[in-house]
Write a structure and sequence with these properties.
Keywords: DNA-binding, Transcription, Transcription regulation. This protein is an alpha+beta fold. The protein is 41% helix and 16% strand. The strands form two sheets. The chain has a six-stranded mixed β-sheet, with helices on both faces. A three-stranded antiparallel β-sheet has the order 5-4-7, with no helix packed on it.
């Protein structure tokens, strides 16, 4: 364990009304802040669009898809863009530090392997670490260095911040992850929950310009960093239905909603649901419903 360096002046804490937008992350690739957020009525269960390393000092429970992990004391937490999570607070305020970053930021100059392959960010991992007093002091010192550095004009501050993040990552890799789950499920159930969450997060379709990005079992398997056969076996074992059936049912449900509640053309609906040509959509819809999209719209 390295000794803690002299701490720089603390950065301004972020409150609940301040948000880190996707645009900010896209432009800079990185954002760090001190967390001091009052507990609200609920904390949304959603997928974020960035990687995250956080030092959490408040008593709370982190819900990852089908798992719930209690954090009591100081913990180091890692999150990736592919797995949705929510934080349930057990005290008035959420306190700590947080660093958000994109994979492109960490892989600049191709000096870092894919974060999806890291044990700390991989799907199905347990990226929560309880820290000792010594580990807390070290991690807090690193976060404070990051906060101080991001506001400087130093030409190579991006490289320096990446180095600090790597120090946090390597410190965590030396520790064993917490296994204090509130509940356990088998591997197939866990994988199925992750697949279903990714599927559901693509809806509702709110604009003709919006299009589904994950359309096939292969697409979902790639997002979850696993072989498509492994995904298909898990989903079939857990639900009794193949992956393609779940995708088709959800697409048909959204198609019916768009036909009934919007004035979009069938071509626009086809595009938004990931079909290359309207004729493909028409055939798909008729196969699963016994009627055409226009007939369905006319009769509802």
């Amino acid at each position: 364990m390295q000794p803690q360096a002299t701490s720089p002046a603390p950065a301004k804490a972020i409150s609940s009304h301040q948000e880190i937008t996707a645009q900010e992350l896209k432009l800079s690739g990185f954002k760090a802040y001190e967390v001091d957020t009052a507990a609200g009525p609920s904390h949304p269960y959603r997928r974020r669009d960035f990687y995250k390393v956080a030092l959490v000092t408040s008593h709370c429970t982190v819900h990852y898809a089908d798992r719930s992990i209690e954090l009591n004391g100081t913990c180091l937490m890692f999150a990736n863009p592919h797995i949705p999570y929510a934080i349930e607070l057990h005290e008035p305020r959420l306190m700590g530090y947080s660093c958000l970053f994109t994979e492109a930021y960490m892989r600049e100059n191709d000096r870092s392997e894919s974060l999806q392959q890291s044990p700390l960010f991989k799907v199905g991992g347990t990226p929560i670490f309880h820290l000792s007093a010594e580990q807390t002091a070290y991690a807090k010192g690193i976060f404070q260095k990051i906060l101080a550095e991001q506001s400087t004009d130093y030409l190579y501050k991006g490289d320096l911040i990446r180095t600090y993040l790597q120090l946090l990552i390597h410190e965590a890799l030396r520790m064993q992850p917490t296994e204090s789950f509130v509940q356990h499920k088998n591997a197939s159930s866990r994988i199925t929950s992750l697949f279903q969450e990714l599927l559901e997060r693509q809806f509702p379709i709110e604009s003709p310009d919006q299009a589904m990005q994950l359309k096939t079992a292969q697409d979902f398997a790639g997002q979850l960093a696993m072989h498509v056969n492994h995904l298909n076996r898990a989903v079939k074992e857990a639900t009794g239905k193949p992956t393609t059936a779940h995708i088709a049912e959800r697409v048909i449900g959204e198609a019916k909603a768009l036909l009934h509640h919007t004035s979009w053309t069938t071509a626009e609906i086809a595009h938004s649901l990931g079909f290359e040509y309207p004729t493909y959509f028409n055939s798909f819809f008729k196969k699963h419903t016994g009627t055409t999209p226009l007939a369905f719209r006319r009769d509802t």
